[in-house]
Automatic annotation (TrEMBL):
Organism: Bugula neritina (Brown bryozoan)
Gene Ontology biological process: lipid metabolic process
Organism taxonomic ancestry: Eukaryota, Metazoa, Spiralia, Lophotrochozoa, Bryozoa
PANTHER family: PROTEIN CBG11750-RELATED
Signal peptide region: 1-18
Keywords: Signal
Entry-linked CDD domains: Lipase_3
Domain of life: Eukaryota
Record protein name field: Fungal lipase-type domain-containing protein
Gene3D superfamilies from the UniProt entry: alpha/beta hydrolase
Record bears the keyword Signal: yes
Length: 383
C-alpha cells in the first residue's frame, strides 16, 4: 500500500519535466510526460533540436515521420570528417565565383592564368560544362566548372549561381518556382526548378567526374556554389554519393548563401547522407532565406549553417558561428535577418570577395571560344 504510493509519487516526479525542457535527443526520446491522467511520450526533432510532446502541433517543426521517439535512434548524424575551414571556404568562394564567368567570351589562356594566380599555381582547369536549360528561357545554360589539383589531391566542382534570364522570363515560371517534386537520390521533395536544372547538368558532371576519380581515386571532391549554385551543389553532391561516383567520405560541400532546397524530408535525408556539408550564410543575405517559409511553408534548410554576423566582406579571420540546428536558431541567419530588402540587396554577393559573381572575371581578358557538344546533351569547353 505504502510502497505503491511511493512509486506513484516517484513517477509523477520523474514525469514532471515537460518535454520541451529536454535539451538533447537521448533524454528526450523515450521520456514520458503526464498530460492530465495519461502519459504521453516525448519526441525529438533532429531538424530543430527540440523536444515536444507526441501529437502536439507547436514547439518544433518536425513532421511526425521525421521525429525521433526512441533514444537508440538518436545518433543519426555522423560528425564531419573535416572541421569547417575558413581558409578553404575563402578559396571555394573564389571557385564559386569562377563558375559565373562565360568561358565563351574570354581568352582561354587568361582563364587558366587567373586560376594559377588565385589558387597558388596548384590547379589545372579540366572543363567548363554547360547543359541546356532552355526551360529557363531561351539559350540558357546551367553551368559547372571542374578542376583538379594533383599536388593537393583534390577535385573541385563549382556550380553557377542564378542564370541570366531565368527568373524573369522562364516559361511556366510560377509553377517551376512553387511546385515540388520528389528527388530520389535523397528522399523528400525539392522545388521543381531546382530538379530541372539538376537533371540537365548532373549527367555531364557525373561522366567527367567518373573519369577523374578513376585516375585520382582518393581525391577529396569539393562541391561548391553560390546562391542558386549552392542549392545545386547540395543536389549534385547527394547524387554523386548515391551513385558512388565519389565516396561519401571524400565529398565536401561548401555553399555560400544557398536558399532552401526542398522540404523537411529532403533536409532530413540530406543531413544523414552528406556528413561534410557546410552552409555558409552572412548577415542580411535575403537570398539565403529564399524558399522562405512564409511563401513556401514546406521548405526547410539543411544542417550545418556557418553564420557570419559581419556587415562587411568577411575573410578567413572573421568570426563565425556554427549553428547546431537546421534553422530558426538564436544568433543565426533567420534570427538576425533584417527583412528590409532594399537595404541589404548587395549582401547576397558579399562572400569573402566584394562581389562573388564578378570577382574572378576581373582577372581575365576578353576573347572568343567555341563550346563543343560531347557526352550526349552536354556542351563542354575542355582545357
Ligand atoms: C589570349 O591571350 C594571349 C596572351 O595575351 C594571346 O597570345 C592569345 O592570342 C589570346 N588568345 C585568343 C584566342 O585571343
Ligand atoms: C602553395 O604551393 C606551395 C607549393 O606547391 C606550397 O608549399 C604552399 O604551402 C602553398 N601555399 C598555400 C597557401 O596553399
Ligand atoms: C513570370 O514571368 C513573367 C513574364 O514572362 C513575369 O511577368 C512574372 O513576374 C514572372 N513570375 C515570377 C514568379 O517570376
Ligand atoms: C504544377 O502543379 C500544378 C498543380 O498540380 C500542375 O497543374 C502543373 O502542371 C504543374 N507544373 C509543372 C511545370 O509541372
Ligand atoms: C578581415 O576581417 C576582419 C573583420 O573580421 C577585418 O577587421 C580585417 O581587416 C580583415 N582583413 C583583411 C586582410 O581584409
Ligand atoms: C555584383 O555583380 C552583379 C552583376 O554580376 C550586379 O548585378 C550586382 O549589383 C553587384 N553587386 C554588388 C554589391 O556590387
Ligand atoms: C569575337 O568574335 C566576334 C565575331 O567574330 C568579333 O566581332 C569580336 O571582336 C571578337 N571578340 C574578341 C574579344 O576577340
Amino acid at each position: 500500500m505504502f510502497a505503491r504510493e511511493i512509486v506513484v509519487v516517484l513517477s509523477v516526479l520523474s514525469a514532471a519535466l515537460c518535454c520541451v525542457e529536454y535539451k538533447d535527443c537521448e533524454s528526450c526520446a523515450g521520456s514520458e510526460h503526464r498530460v492530465r491522467f495519461s502519459m504521453k511520450s516525448c519526441e525529438w526533432c533532429p531538424l530543430t533540436l527540440k523536444c515536444r510532446t507526441q501529437g502536439s502541433v507547436f514547439a518544433n517543426h518536425c513532421d511526425r515521420d521525421l521525429s525521433v521517439g526512441a533514444a537508440d535512434l538518436c545518433g543519426w548524424i555522423e560528425e564531419p570528417r573535416m572541421k569547417y575551414d575558413s581558409q578553404l571556404a575563402e578559396e571555394l568562394a573564389k571557385w564559386s565565383s569562377l563558375a559565373y564567368v562565360d568561358p565563351r567570351k574570354l581568352n582561354k589562356s587568361s582563364i587558366q592564368s587567373a586560376v594559377d594566380a588565385q589558387f597558388n599555381n596548384s590547379y589545372q582547369l579540366v572543363e567548363f560544362l554547360m547543359a541546356d536549360c532552355d526551360w529557363a528561357g531561351d539559350e540558357n545554360y546551367c553551368k559547372a566548372v571542374v578542376a583538379k589539383s594533383e599536388s593537393q589531391n583534390r577535385i573541385v566542382v563549382a556550380l553557377e549561381g542564378t542564370f541570366s534570364s531565368y527568373q524573369s522570363h522562364g516559361k511556366d515560371n510560377r509553377t517551376y518556382f512553387t511546385n515540388m517534386t520528389t528527388f530520389s537520390p535523397t528522399g523528400g521533395k525539392i522545388l521543381l526548378y531546382r530538379k530541372a536544372a539538376h537533371d540537365s547538368l548532373y549527367p555531364c558532371v557525373k561522366s567527367l567526374l567518373k573519369e577523374l576519380t578513376t585516375t585520382m581515386p582518393t581525391a577529396e571532391v569539393m562541391v561548391t556554389g553560390h546562391a542558386f549554385g549552392g542549392a545545386q551543389a547540395q543536389l549534385m553532391a547527394a547524387h554523386m554519393i548515391t551513385n558512388d561516383v565519389a565516396s561519401r567520405r571524400n565529398v565536401h560541400i561548401y555553399t555560400f548563401g544557398s536558399p532552401r532546397v526542398g522540404d523537411k524530408g529532403f533536409a532530413y535525408s540530406y543531413d544523414r547522407m552528406a556528413d561534410n556539408s557546410w552552409r555558409v550564410t552572412r548577415r542580411n543575405d535575403f537570398m539565403a532565406l529564399g524558399g522562405a517559409r512564409d511563401v513556401f511553408p514546406f521548405c526547410f534548410h539543411t544542417r550545418r549553417e556557418v553564420y557570419y554576423d559581419y556587415p562587411g566582406v568577411m575573410n578567413s579571420t572573421t568570426d563565425y558561428k556554427i549553428c547546431d540546428s537546421n534553422e530558426g536558431e538564436e544568433g543565426c541567419l533567420e534570427d538576425r535577418a533584417d527583412m528590409e530588402r532594399g537595404v541589404i540587396a548587395g549582401n547576397l554577393y558579399r562572400y569573402f570577395v566584394p562581389n562573388i559573381s564578378e570577382y574572378m572575371k576581373n582577372f581575365m581578358k576578353a576573347g572568343n571560344n567555341t563550346i563543343t557538344k560531347r557526352r550526349a546533351t552536354c556542351h563542354t569547353m575542355p582545357f
